[in-house]
Write a structure and sequence with these properties.
mainly beta; 16-stranded mixed sheet; ten-stranded parallel sheet; globular
């Protein structure tokens, strides 16, 4: 396909490899050109070595209707996969699992296995809700950011971002809304390299942000800033789940931090390391993986900081055998056992 026209839309149906070549300076000099690839149920589309200044992939692109993997032609949005090839797939600017102007974006799924993408959205609606959308990163590079569910004026709820491998720069939002509420969104960081600002739930217009979760489960977050929520409105129940040893630039804006002490935790272990930590209004709970044995007089550093801790936290449940207490020790928060 060759074109020098503006606002080109290319729709591809079927199981095939699609190669797009655009020649001359027309496209290079016109940033308004967009290439939209639409996918349909049960089919797989891979991109070979394409060239374009700006590529947008839509799993579903709907002006006003309800966009969902359950009810639309996109029965299995898990087929939306960037696989990467020997020659590469080119740089994709934006990738949407589902997009609608005024309808609900629901239960759409995007998987990235390789290649380079600037922005990834599980589901996005300009003026309605984004619900139950998922982005899974198994490899590749995300250069600008990932959003599980995005809305302009609607609510975002139960959206998920799961990082299995790869590299992410910029930002990660479980759910992001300009003016609505953000509820029950999850960011799970299992592996890979995260150099990003990470938010469980984000409402820029003062909406309610509650019950969002960030899970630290083995990813390298040494270049990340970790936030549970952002809003100028009310917030509650936003959790950080610490399941593996982790080091971050900063940790803040969590209503709850749950530590699950991992295998190998011993006297003197440091679980979460960060330059700065804000624990204003945070409740800390501690448990352990099955089979972990601690001695009665062990001291575990739950949080180690280089620049100190701000804010006042409270102690919740300590689900460990024996007598334990959580104390501030200089710049650290420690779990201290005793024989008493």
């Amino acid at each position: 396909v060759k074109s020098a026209c503006n606002y080109n839309k290319v729709f591809v149906k079927g199981k095939l490899t699609f190669n797009l070549f655009m020649e001359g300076n027309d496209m290079k000099n016109n940033l308004k050109n967009k290439i939209m690839l639409a996918f349909f149920a049960g089919n797989m589309l891979c991109m070979g070595s394409a060239w374009a200044d700006d590529i947008i992939w839509y799993g579903t692109a709907d002006g006003t209707g309800h966009v969902t993997s359950k009810s639309s032609a996109l029965m299995n949005n898990a087929k939306l996969i960037i696989a990467g090839t020997e020659d590469g797939i080119g740089d994709v600017d934006e990738f949407y699992g589902g997009y609608s102007q005024s309808g609900i974006a629901e239960n759409n799924e995007v998987k990235i296995n390789g290649g380079s993408v600037s922005y990834v959205y599980g589901g996005s609606s300009v003026s309605n809700n984004a619900v139950g959308n998922t982005v899974t990163i198994n490899g590749g590079i995300i250069t600008e950011g990932i959003t599980g569910g995005n809305s302009g004026t609607g609510n975002v709820s139960e959206n998920h971002v799961v990082i299995v491998n790869g590299k992410v720069d910029g930002y990660i939002f479980g759910g992001d809304t300009a003016h609505g509420n953000a509820t029950g969104n999850v960011v799970e960081l299992n592996a890979g390299d995260i150099d990003a600002e990470v938010y469980g739930g984000f409402s820029n217009g003062g909406g309610e942000v509650k019950d969002n979760t960030v899970i630290l489960n083995g990813a390298d977050v040494s270049g990340a800033k970790i936030y549970g929520y952002y809003t100028t409105g009310s917030h509650s129940g936003n959790k950080l789940e610490v399941k593996k040893l982790a080091t971050a630039i900063s940790v803040s804006n969590f209503d709850i931090i749950n530590f699950t002490l991992p295998s190998g935790t011993t006297d003197g272990s440091k679980i979460l390391n960060a330059s700065t930590v804000n624990l204003s209004g945070t409740k800390i709970n501690v448990g352990a993986v099955s089979g972990l044995t601690l001695n009665a007089d062990d001291t575990i550093t739950l949080i180690h900081t280089t620049n100190g801790i701000t804010g006042t936290f409270t102690v919740g449940n300590i689900s460990l055998k024996g007598n334990w207490e959580i104390l501030i020790n200089g710049n650290d928060i420690v779990l201290l056992g005793s024989d008493d």
